[in-house]
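Appendix B, record 7
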Amino acid sequence: MSLPGSLYGLSRRSLLGSALALGACQPAAQSQTPTISLPPLKSIAPFPVGTAVQAVHLTDPSLARLIAAQASQLTPEWEMKMEYIVRDDGTFRFEAPDAIAAFARDNGLGLFGHTLVWYAQTSPAFERLDEGRVSFAQAYRNYIHAVVGRYRGQAVGWDVVNEAVAEDGEGWRDSLWSQRLGAFEHMVLAFQNAREADPTAKLFLNDYNLEWIPKKRATFLRLVERLLAAGAPIDGVGTQTHVAADQAPGEIARTIAELGQFGLQVHVSEFDVSLSRAQGLRLNRAELERQQAALYGEAAEAFMALPPRQRFAFSFWGLRDSESWLKREDASDTPLPFDDQGRAKAAAAAWAARVG
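Structure tokens (predicted):
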């Protein structure tokens, strides 16, 4: 007998030129945001503008209004990951992703699923799986079908495999999935299972530090080639683009251009530019903010250089600085396009100037 909504069986439920008035930045640790008037970003860009969100964010009326006004697509920051969905006993929970999906639906926003298979996350239910009841491959398929199938018809796409390439670019990461299903085979299976669960959603391979580590980027590109050669139903590639203000100019543009060579859709999937992570730069805060704005502009210009059919979406990893994951490292960091009060920053204006 299978457990409904678990690894052993699937639940039958399913959900279904703006003026660039930059002003002078103050060098204080928390500089004052100059007054910048911009139309909503989603009204400027000729492609979907995404943002990461947690369910709790939607209970803040001011943030909910900002998201609805500025974004056209939502990515759950972590509540569609296995760490949230799979309980220790192998049953599933969907309360938080359902809340995000409902907000997206109610506000006419797209929903982007993140993420199905990630080396960094497993579950005790998978680790102690009783293969006398169900094979590991079947449990893997059941999980992907349960999650993707729940949002079939609403989710516009999925990060199917996340961060598969080793940080130094030497091959692929080891994981429970690679150990049990094969280093390459588990990726092909994930794409095949996701396509079965929702034939219309766009399916992505997603990774990070592709701009910072050329060898990692090269390995990522070879992996895409191999997936395509194997017939995996991959529709797009995602570059997270978590960068720091000392990112070498030109590398973001080079990365986006190289990802576009396959003719697949490209997703700038988790964009932010940290000031605090900039290393070895003896610059004051105002100078770092200028470099941040320049990188926002470079990324927007490079994305616009892609053919329109390849511009899947440009997603910020949050809109307001106050919600950024980087705040947990350094409370003074300000990596996002809007400040703590939801006011547009010079970075947002630089980005808008390149896409408008």
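Remarks on this record: The beta strands are 49-53, 73-76, 110-118, 155-162, 202-207, 236-239, 242-244, 265-274, 311-316. Residues 246 and 279 are 7 Å apart (CA to CA).
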